[in-house]
Design brief:
By secondary structure, this protein is mainly beta. The chain has two domains: 142 residues, no CATH class; 103 residues, SH3 type barrels, CATH 2.30.30. It is 9% helix and 28% strand. It contains four helices and twelve strands. Strands 1, 2, 5, 6, 7, 8, 9, 10, 11 and 12 form a ten-stranded antiparallel sheet that branches. Strands 3-4 form a two-stranded antiparallel ribbon. The protein is elongated and about 65 Å long. The two termini are 29 Å apart.
Length: 312
Amino acid sequence: MRRRSAPFMPTVVALSAASTLVLASCGGPETAEPESAQSSPTDDSPTATSSSSSPSSSVEDSTPEARSEAPTEAAQSRRSPGAGPPPGGAQRMAEKDFDEADHGEATELHYYAEEGAQVGVAGLDPREDPLEIYAAPTRSSEVVAELESTDAVTLGGRERQHQGGQDGGPRDDGFWTEIELADGYGWFNSRGRDAGIYWFGGTTDVTEDYTDIPTAEDGQSVAESVASALTERGQEEGAADMEFGPTSELISEPADFGEEFYRVDVTGYLDDSMVGERLFVYVSEAEVGYELEKVERTLICYRGVSAGGLCS
């Protein structure tokens, strides 16, 4: 479902305080309880009751049957959103064991040195290889875990940076981030993949931005139309063939995890603080086919989230 469009700078709206909502944002909006950052909350501010991903939740008669189905066969091998720390990990490296020649220099330039904070995976097509996690900040070390498209992890509090690859060996360029897993610690390298681990903001209803989405034969087509509308927003005439700018990935369908929505990541914004948006697209049956019912979105951020839920 990857789509590219011309670069644009997205308009940011006020969101909820969200540094404690990352797991909900990575999984779905069901447990988030964002409040409007404005002094007088509006009636359409999202609440904990505005949506639910629980298969047992009551749904309207117009809801597609896929919302209450058991997980699909393709999704059975995937971890459910919010299932807890991903398995794997190794014993945490002691400071005395770091060697700059092998493990790079200590740094805090990449904004992932807040020990105990939670971040999540974004932009990873579930059909592609998972994100590999290493025992040490070098690709010559053991792979101790793999992150999937809806995983959330805890930051270990340390970062390393390599200035270049070793002669005759694997390239370790870029930033390495320490994370905590179910069975220990590991290191993630941010170089060479569109997908990565990022900060997630709060969740808010943005349905009014997509009132022109047409009906379609199936719900996935509706979700893809929402993603296309976002990636193409602000596109300049004659720049459609540019090979940079935002891309979209369909992360999950309702039947994958027994949820009520399609989960779509739009990433690759040409912005120094915002990576993109995670969209939760709800559809319902129309007289012919399916139509858009609601869209909620979560900001995906490079450098953290402010008290108001904006990308720092």
